[in-house]
């Protein structure tokens, strides 16, 4: 296993570099954070999950989304393996699109206390209508380059 850079304490992490079991629900999943190596710098971190899956809480049918999460860190970064496991824990979770998208944003904002965070949930249609859900903590900080999410309107969402 590669050792972390000096000054980056990862001793409290439970997943990084370890065999981990897939959590069965978002409530069971654990999100972890690591110190930001560039505190005070306004930079944007982006995670894209083009194959996010959850279940319709009424029918139990699968729902699929392309999630884009952007944030300008404060003192913390989300540990990416824990984020991946957290996002995949929704595959057996029944919730509406809005609950999933906004809930993920709130959970990340609560964990990280970022300078700014936004999430775009681009949901594939069921019943012929795509439902896209957007949430952010406020205005992006001045001086941070935040690229457009550029997820196409539904037309096969490539």
Automatic annotation (TrEMBL):
Q: Where does substrate bind?
A: 78-80, 97-98
The annotated active site, in chain numbering, is 56, 63
Pfam family of this protein, just one? Answer: QueF
Any one GO MF annotation of this record: preQ1 synthase activity
Residue ranges with Polar residues bias: 16-25
Q: Which UniProt keywords apply?
A: Cytoplasm, NADP, Oxidoreductase, Queuosine biosynthesis
* Subcellular compartments: Cytoplasm
Q: Which reaction does it catalyse?
A: 7-aminomethyl-7-carbaguanine + 2 NADP(+) = 7-cyano-7-carbaguanine + 2 NADPH + 3 H(+)
The answer to whether keyword Cytoplasm applies is yes
Name the segments for region: Disordered: 1-35
Q: Which SUPFAM superfamilies match?
A: Tetrahydrobiopterin biosynthesis enzymes-like
| Protein's pathway | tRNA modification; tRNA-queuosine biosynthesis
Q: Where are the transmembrane segments?
A: none
EC numbers on record: 1.7.1.13
- Per the UniProt entry, what is one GO biological process? tRNA queuosine(34) biosynthetic process
Recorded GO CC terms: cytoplasm
What family does the Swiss-Prot or TrEMBL record give for this protein? Belongs to the GTP cyclohydrolase I family. QueF type 1 subfamily.
The UniProt entry, under HAMAP family, shows:
QueF_type1
Task of the protein: Catalyzes the NADPH-dependent reduction of 7-cyano-7-deazaguanine (preQ0) to 7-aminomethyl-7-deazaguanine (preQ1).
Q: What is this protein called?
A: NADPH-dependent 7-cyano-7-deazaguanine reductase
């Amino acid at each position: 296993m590669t050792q972390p850079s000096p000054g980056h304490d990862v001793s409290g992490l439970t997943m990084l570099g370890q065999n981990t079991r897939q959590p069965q629900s978002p409530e069971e999943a654990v999100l972890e954070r690591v110190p930001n190596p560039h505190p005070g710098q306004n930079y944007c971190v982006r995670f894209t999950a083009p194959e996010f899956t959850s279940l319709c809480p009424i029918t139990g049918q699968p729902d699929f989304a392309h999630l884009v999460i952007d944030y300008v860190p404060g003192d913390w970064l989300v540990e990416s393996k824990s984020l991946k496991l957290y996002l995949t824990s929704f595959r057996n979770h029944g919730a509406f699109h809005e609950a999933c998208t906004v809930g993920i944003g709130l959970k990340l904002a609560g964990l990280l206390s970022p300078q700014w965070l936004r999430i775009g949930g681009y949901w594939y249609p069921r019943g012929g209508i795509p439902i896209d859900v957007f949430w952010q903590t406020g205005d992006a900080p001045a001086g941070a380059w935040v690229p457009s999410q550029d997820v196409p309107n539904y037309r096969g969402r490539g």
